[in-house]
Amino acid sequence: MPVHNADITAILEEIADLLEIQGANPFRIRAYRNAARILGDLPQEARLLVERGDDLTRLPGIGTDLAGKISEIITTGHCSLLDRLHRELPPAITELMKIPGLGPKRVKTLYHDLDVQTVEQLHRAAQDGSIRALHGFGEKTEQNILQAVQAHASQSRRFKLATAAQYAEALRAFLQAVPGVQQVVVAGSFRRMRETVGDLDILVTAAPDSPVMQRFTSYDEIAEVYSAGETRASILLKCGMQVDLRVVAQASYGAALHYFTGSKAHNIAIRRIAQQLGLKVNEYGVFRGEKRIAGDSEESVYRAVGLPYIPPELREDRGEIETAHAGRLPQLVELADLRGDLHAHTRATDGHDSLRDMALAARALGLEYLAITEHSRRLTVAHGLDPIQLAKQCDEIDRLNAQLDGITLLKGIEVDILEDGSLDLPDSVLARLDLVVGAVHSRFDLSRAKQTGRILRAMDHPHFTLLAHPSGRLIEKREPYDVDMLRIIRHAKQRGCFLELNAHPERLDLLDSHCQSAKEEGVLVSINSDAHSTFDFSNLKFGVGQARRGWLEKADVLNTRPLAALRKLLRRTM
Ligand code: DGT
Ligand code: CA
Ligand code: CA
Question: pTM higher than 0.85 for the full model?
Fold first, then answer.
């Protein structure tokens, strides 16, 4: 059974949590948390690294002990340390930690002081008022816990797009290899490149005698088979993700793909148009009375209702149908349109690879330029650069550019925007760079007025070029900070600055709606990998997906420009 990075991360995080509940050494706990984060950020499967014989201790923060644990997880699917912790603690304690507002510290207190071991016991303790009496809790916290427990019961879990992609790709390859199977497409929100995915919807066309259903329901990562029929099945993977499978005849392929790609709102709007034309649309085709007039391809479905093909990323009923009807659909940007990447780190700070290796990896992907943008000194956790270290890196870039053909490294920095809107390095230092990427890494809690003012002031800086991950959100982890994004976009226009769409799977920031605003205001967006290793360039495809959801075309994206044109744009005149 293949073990995915998300599985390893989950095990390492659970170990850290359980150690904390047991009151273990904080350094030991932190080592597991760091390892989980590093594995979670790794765009390549750790399994493949191990199979290839790579040394896992090459990853920062992974010592021999942790490397051993990770190898154990990859080869056996579990970890003896976690098994031991499970034996030592009540089994439902992990579930408690999923309640928002309850970290391992609070669970520890609840468990040791009130003997709360399950969600039901937690619910009861919150209701009968015994939680408020605990040290560090109080009545307000008790109320919050009560609400969270009730919400927890009704809430369903979503997965980050990049995490879903790991499971989807493995399943797709598995199904594709089944005899008689023709096409396998992962539809639903996954195909629409939504930033999170609730479940996977897989569509298969196959010969009538294909054993695809039996094979699917005996896939070895299954925790439970919810239902299994002739043409449809629904299962739960061990990771907690549900997968719906539909097997359809080749003739209905387009109609079924259209139906299961969604969104539901888009489908309903299309069906309404069809009704006005006296047609019926369902997952088997487009019908006039009994006669089937379309459905073998998605194009044929759209054509039957008088529309051009609408790309999946636009199918949210957010104006795409009206725009298609008017013949004004955007020509969405594609991965192949990117000529470079304007945000990357090397091992000089918190990246894993050398300047040279990053340059070669970018070149291998067909990129023409790569900006190196290390953190600045304020970000001590990432070993941010001071002026002397930055000057040294600039010299190194000059030397490498003289040696390398086919790729140009640009000199940049991801400079911290300080609380007052000033930048973390002096003007004289920034003046030598090709671009200055500014980022908020602290004080996410400022008021809307203050946070907005802080960023506007940073943009006023003569060397500021690009605002990194503009909303600051981390998907399913941290809400965006409170800013007036439209004002920031308009200010960027005035000052000749640009906005980043950070393609890191946890960020996907600029948000899709803000991409649309940027386009409307005429501010170019740069789709950047924020690579911390040579593997991370593969994140660019998720950034492009997000840009497409934001209706961006090639011309709206800064890093589709060839180097010479880019240089002109980076030279600010305002
Ligand atoms: P998710 O899984 O929450 O991330 O979002 P989706 O869009 O993948 O939704 P899902 O898995 O519930 O359904 C997959 C597709 O099936 C959905 O995008 C459109 C289609 N679909 C589901 N239910 C309905 C429905 O009641 N009416 C119509 N017209 N289409 C539906
Ligand atoms: Ca779905
Ligand atoms: Ca579904």
Answer: no
Can you name the CATH fold of 159-247? Beta Polymerase; domain 2 (3.30.460)
pLDDT of residue 97: 85
Between the CA of 199 and the centroid of ligand 3 the distance, in Å, is 5
The whole-number average pLDDT for the span 116-140 is 90
d(CA 534, CA 346): 9
The angle that helices 355-364 and 387-403 make with each other, rounded to 10 degrees, is 50
Domain 5-153: top CATH class: mainly alpha
Q: Ligand 3 centre and the CA of 187: distance in Å? A: 9
pLDDT of 195 > 90? The answer is: yes
Q: Which ligand is nearest to the CA of 263?
A: 1
Which residue ranges make up each domain of the chain? 5-153, 159-247, 252-325, 335-573
- Give the CATH fold of the 335-573 domain: TIM Barrel (3.20.20)
Helix, strand, coil distribution of the chain in percent, nearest 5: 50, 15, 35
Give the pLDDT confidence score for residue 243 in this predicted structure: 97
255 CA distance to ligand 1 middle (Å): 14
Overall fold of domain 252-325: Beta Polymerase; domain 3 (3.30.210)
| 474 has pLDDT over 60 | yes
CB 286 within 8 A of CB 306: no
How many angstroms separate the CA atoms of 54 and 71, rounded? 11
* Pocket residues: Cβ below 6 A from ligand 1: 188-189, 194, 197-199, 201, 259-260, 262-264, 267-268
pLDDT (average), residues 86-114 = 87
Looking at ligand 1, which atom is closest to the CA of residue 192? 7
Best residue among 158, 189, 194, 203 to mutate for probing ligand 1's pocket (most ligand atoms within 8 Å of CB) is 189
Question: Is residue 462 scored above 80 in pLDDT?
Answer: yes
